[in-house]
Write a structure and sequence with these properties.
Blueprint lengths: L2 H19 L4 E2 H8 L3 H13 L3 E7 L7 E6 L5 E7 L3 E8 L4 E8 L6 H16 L7 E5 L3 E2 L4 E2 L13 H9 L3 E5 H11 L13 E6 L3 E7 L2 E2 L30 H11 L2 H19 L3 E5 L1 H5 L1 H19 L7 E3 L6 H11 L9
Parallel strand pairs: 4-7, 7-10, 11-14, 14-15
Antiparallel strand pairs: 1-3, 2-3, 4-5, 5-6, 8-9, 11-12, 12-13
Helix pairs in contact: 1-3, 2-3, 4-5, 6-11, 7-8, 8-10
Length: about 350
C-alpha cells in the first residue's frame, strides 16, 4: 500500500468536505462520518491542515450530548491558482482562491497567429501583472486544440498549423518559474462545471454531460461519470471536426462539411436558427453515442444568443427522442461561468486535484 498516496487521498477527501461546507464549517465527527475515516485519522489530518494554514476554526456547534463541537472551515486565501484562457483573438486571466472564486481578472487582445514567442511573452506578462505579489500553486492554460494534455505540447491548432509540436507548458513554465498545466479550452470549461468552480458543487453530480463551446471555433468537453474524458492520447472532444455534409464547404482542418465550418458559416450569414440546428445535429450524435445526461452550451457566440441556441439544439434533441421513442429528452442549458468560464476551469486544472475532484 502506498501510504503517502493514501494520506494524500484522505486529506483530499477532508479538504473537499471543508470546501463544500463553506463558511459555516463542519465538525470532525461529521468529517469522519462522511469520509469513513476514523476520528483519530480525521484529527491527525485536520491538525496538519491547520498547521499548513489550510483550515481554521469556524466556531462551535451545539451537540446532542456532551460539550459543543468545534467546527472547521477551509481558509480560501491560503492558496491561489491562475487560470489562463488563450482564445484566437483574446486572452483572459483569472486569479482564483482555493474555493475557485475569482479574486482578480485581466483581459487583453491576443493574436494566436503572431508566433509562439510573442504569445508566450504576452501571456506571461499578463499573468505577472495579475499576481501582484501572490505566489500561486501554478498556472492552468486553456486554448483551442488539438493538443497533448499530458506533455503540454500543441498539435495542429485549427487555423494555426504553425503551433504543431510547440511545448507550450515548458515554455511558459520556464518564463514564469511556476508549474503549468495545459489543456483544451473545452476540457477546462467542462472540468470547471463538473467541480462547480466557485460554487462548491457541480450541476450534475457524478453524471455525464457534454459541454459544447461555440466561439471563434467549435469544440466539446466530455464528462463521463463525473470525470473529464480526454482519451488515451488526450485527443477526445474534437467535436467541431465531425463531417456531416460530405460535399460541404472546406474547413480550416482540411475536411469538408465539418460541423464547425457549417456552424460558423451560418453565424456569419446571420442565420442563427440554422447554426443552432447544425449544433443540435452534432449534439444529437453525442447523445446517441455516449448516452449523456445533459448538454451545456457556452462560448461567446452562444452567450450573445442564448435563447436561440438553447431552443434550436433542444428542438433537434427533442425530435431525435420522439423518433426513437422512450420519451426521454436530454435537457439543454447554458453552462455556468459566462465569459470567463474557460479561464475559471483552467484554474481548476491546479485546484481540483487538491480536493480529489480531478487529475488536473
Amino acid at each position: 500500500m502506498n501510504l503517502p498516496a493514501l494520506r494524500s487521498h484522505n486529506a483530499a477527501l477532508v479538504l473537499d468536505l471543508l470546501r463544500t461546507a463553506g463558511a459555516a464549517g463542519i465538525s470532525r465527527l461529521e468529517l469522519a462520518e462522511r469520509t469513513g475515516l476514523t476520528p483519530q485519522a480525521v484529527s491527525k489530518i485536520t491538525a496538519r491542515l491547520r498547521a499548513d494554514g489550510l483550515a481554521a476554526e469556524a466556531g462551535r456547534r451545539a451537540s446532542t450530548g456532551g460539550k459543543p463541537r468545534t467546527v472547521l472551515r477551509l481558509v480560501p486565501e491560503a492558496g491561489h491558482a491562475v487560470g489562463l484562457h488563450l482564445d484566437r483573438d483574446e486572452l483572459t486571466a483569472v486569479l482564483c482562491d482555493l474555493t475557485g472564486a475569482v479574486v482578480a481578472e485581466r483581459r487583453a487582445p491576443l493574436d494566436l497567429g503572431a508566433g509562439a514567442d510573442a504569445v508566450v511573452k504576452g501571456a506571461a506578462g499578463e499573468v505577472e501583472a495579475l499576481l501582484g505579489g501572490v505566489s500561486p500553486l501554478g498556472v492552468g492554460v486553456a486554448l483551442p486544440g488539438p493538443l497533448d494534455h499530458t506533455l503540454g505540447v500543441l498539435h495542429r491548432v485549427t487555423g494555426f498549423p504553425e503551433w504543431d509540436g510547440f511545448a507550450l507548458r515548458d515554455a511558459l513554465a520556464g518564463r514564469l518559474g511556476l508549474p503549468v498545466v495545459v489543456d483544451k479550452d473545452t476540457n477546462a470549461a467542462a472540468l470547471g462545471v463538473a467541480v462547480g468552480a466557485g460554487s462548491g458543487s457541480g450541476p450534475v453530480g457524478g453524471g455525464s454531460f457534454a459541454y459544447l463551446h461555440l466561439g471563434t471555433g467549435l469544440g466539446a468537453g466530455l464528462v463521463i461519470g463525473g470525470t473529464v474524458h480526454r482519451g488515451t492520447r488526450t485527443g477526445a472532444g474534437e467535436f467541431g471536426h465531425q463531417v456531416i455534409q460530405l460535399d460541404g464547404p472546406l474547413c480550416e482542418c482540411g475536411n469538408r462539411g465539418c460541423i464547425e465550418v457549417l456552424c460558423l458559416d451560418a453565424v456569419g450569414r446571420g442565420t442563427l436558427d440554422e447554426a443552432a440546428r447544425v449544433l443540435g445535429a452534432g449534439a444529437a450524435n453525442l447523445v446517441g453515442l455516449l448516452d449523456i445526461d445533459l448538454v451545456l452550451l457556452g462560448g461567446r457566440t452562444v452567450a450573445a444568443h442564448e435563447e436561440v441556441f438553447v431552443r434550436g439544439v433542444g428542438t433537434v434533441l427533442g425530435e431525435r427522442a420522439r423518433r426513437e421513442g422512450g420519451g426521454t429528452v436530454v435537457p439543454v442549458g447554458i453552462a455556468p461561468g459566462g465569459a470567463r468560464g474557460v479561464a475559471e476551469g483552467a484554474a481548476q486544472l491546479l485546484l481540483a486535484p487538491l480536493f480529489g475532484r480531478g487529475d488536473g
